[in-house]
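Worked example 4.2. Below are the chains of a multi-component assembly; read each line carefully before continuing.
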Amino acid sequence: MTVCVFFGCTFIAFGPAISLFIFTVARDPLRVIFLIAGAFFWLVSLLLSSLVWFIAVQISNKENASLQKGLLIFGVVLSVFLQEAFRFGYYKLLKKANEGLMALNQDDTMPISIRQLAYVSGLGFGFMSGAFSVVNILADSLGPGTVGIYGDPPHYFVSSAFMTMAIILLHMFWGVVFFDACEKKQWLSLAVVVCTHLLVSCLTFLNPQYEGSLIPAYVIAFVMGAWAFFISGGSLRNLRLCLTCKDKDFLLANHRPR
Amino acid sequence: MVIATGKWTLLLIVSFLCSECIYCNSVEQKIYVTLNKTVPCVRLLNATHQIGCQSSISGDTGVIHVVGDDSDLEWVLKTGNTPPYMVLLDGSLFTREVMIKMKDSSRVAGVAVVVPKKGPEGGFSPHQKCPNDKSSVYSNSYGEEYAHCNKTVWNPLGNDLSYEDFHFPIFMMQDENETEVVKKCFFDHNVPVNGSGPSYPLCAMQLFSHMHAATNTVTCMRRNDLQATFSINPEVLCDPLSDYNIYSFLHPVNKSRKNPEEKVIIAAARMDTRSFFWDFAPGGESAVSGFVTLLAVAETLSKISENLTSPLKKNILFSFFQGEVFDYIGSSRMVYDMQKGTFVIGLENIDTFIEIGQVGLRSASQLWIHSDPVSRQNASIDNEVRNLSSTLMKAGNDSNVPVFEPSVSQPLPPSSFQSFLKAQYIPGVVLTDHQSAFSNRYYESIYDTSENLNLSYPSELGPEEQLEFVTATAQSLSEVATVVAKTLFKQAGGSEEDLFKVQADPKTVTKMLYGFAIRSNNSWFRSLVNQDVKPGLVNGPPQYYVGVVLPNSSPKQKRLIQYVLANLTGTVVNLTKEQCQNTDKGGDQHRELYDYIWIQGSMPLNGSDPVPYCVRSTVRLSDAVSPAFDLKQYGALNYSTWTESRWKEIKARIFLVSSKELEMLTLAIGIAILVISLLVTYFISTKADILFTVSREPTTAAY
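Applying the procedure described above to all two chains together yields the following structure tokens:
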């Protein structure tokens, strides 16, 4: 749909992720490394699940449309489980790596906390997931045409961009909640993460009724965001303090450095 | 065992991965509908001008508007509020005035012409009124009163459309289904509602036909040379229009040794034509009628030449010239070769010249003889021409074909004979079905099809029966062929007793007409062509545009005439494939005189493999490249300098476009989200200590 739409959709989809990267991750090389490693883990999970789906499709009867749809649903569900499994695997790997990192570090302190690792790995998962969701669509949005000649809804590009933004944020929040649940051995929280991931992915089957998939996705993102916020040590009081700019007094009162 | 299974699984996986993607559902397929059956208009250049059409390098996009009458045209040119427009033009409006109006407008992004099956009733010819005027023999120094069609306008219906230079792409929609798809898209999205403009998203079309060459041949060739000299990967921008002439002698002539005493009568016809669009030139009356008649003449004379009471004194050269539409490429090249001595005979060997022009539409069955009045001022030439004309009229009398000469002195119509006259005075005539202006009302246009030739078959016949059915047109052309053959026979010194044997066979003529004007993929053609040409046989009529010779291209339809001529005039000899195709040695020691072709043969009825055979004939090819390119005189005014531009891709597609406002809105939303998220993230990251009160990790508890 031309260059304007291309840049508009890119900024919509990757705007929050880029700003998070610039302000929180880019300065610290260790965080960058773990972000890229997280992205790689997500990529491998996608590769495995797509391999399984591809083989299943080749074996099956290609003419049968409902069978193909069923296989697609199966592929999505499998992909969700594989992604979460790889998230768990990454967590285990990071725990092992942390011991090694501590041994390397002269201070004998943790150079990066498990909470920060959770956030960075979630963001890495989000980046890669967002890229695979939307880059193909962005490439086609550069041409002069827009979706619709076969009757598809015309807001395809913008909806995809918003969905991608939701997915990236969601991956970040899921990362935080997941790692915290693993630390505290709260398996119920783990199950909730997997279930919400499954729910959001399966809601995309409602497309092209974008209201059915976008609105619930954003609601879930908001809820997960709040949960992650509280897990990370935030509270409503802190939020109020920051927003009303009384933080300086708070800091001074508690002898904490800025 | 486990390792073997593992390897097998890996192989299976790899083979699956390498197989085609069957479940591809890319976004591009949701957006674009490609139009596959379109014919573009391309750019041609000569020494001084460029003609044809050009698109921008990334295609021209415009909102589709179906133009069927003047009010639609007004909408496109003046009142419509979403320019630029891509016009879907109805065939009846494809006239000069409409196209010039659109050419001058800046609101037209391109034109897609929907061509009906039959041409407009009044006739339509995008060619010039005076074809090949610049390369005509009549100029200010030769027959000034006949120059520039002062005496006779040959093509009065000509509107010069093919020789205009358009700055937007013009395509022809060949398939009705695709036209329906485009019209449906238009009616669904683009029709104005209640007087106000239509609302977005609108249906749009994009046409790609970017041409690399520009300005004229001199410039283009100079750029080619620059590329060849300085570039590591040279890109050619244009190619000269070229192909091969086909010629054949009645009695074989030694390739190397020339006999200055030998007298040759040349019987010529042209085999190419053109239209406004690229490589689409059915040429029924303008080309097919002429060369099919000449093929019939060649067959007739070859058949009787063996058993004659007295042999013919003069030889006959049957030549089929290519590229005649573009300033006589083939014939000027042959004259040039004759002058340089590289052709088998020289200009001094030519006794007379008979050309068969457009002979398919004989109204009241009349056949007209045209001759050159300027050369006839010479007494001996005039004598010869008179003899020739009287022989023709007598032959016409014998065959019930009324042959006439125009009463007023007229110049020659555009014909290959003019190239020969430019070199020296030769007595000769051109035979046509028109006295002055062409009877062909669709000269060099897309409508010059078999229908223009009045070729009609009873509807219940299948393709193979139609091949054998003798139509009225075939009968008429075979009569003309008989007249010409008898004339050639008498002119070559044939005796009266053998004259009755000279009869053209209408069955062959009708088979040729069917193959050359209706469907080239038929059983007869399949049985007489080579393996190379067989894939080029199509289920429709062949196209006769001269085209260019690309380095790696395979020979196309043009070789068809060569094989038909070889079949009709040659003999089958008993040679094996190696002996037949071997150019040096061979069982038959006549390599200097003859040419040998290996034919795959026809499928016998019991379905087994076809039996191949070797044909020996005198049919040869000669280069039909304008001498201007050999001499590197790209600005020459006396030779043809036509070139065709090269291009990367030509395609057409339709899709929906949204309004500029919506696109700007999307960009604005994107930038807003980016800015907001930058601000929020900055805020959060600076206040992170406050927001996230971190509980002390057990391992860092040092106090």
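Take a moment to check your reading of the output against the notes. The longest helix of chain A spans residues 65-104. Chain A touches chain B through 63 residues (CB under 8 Å).
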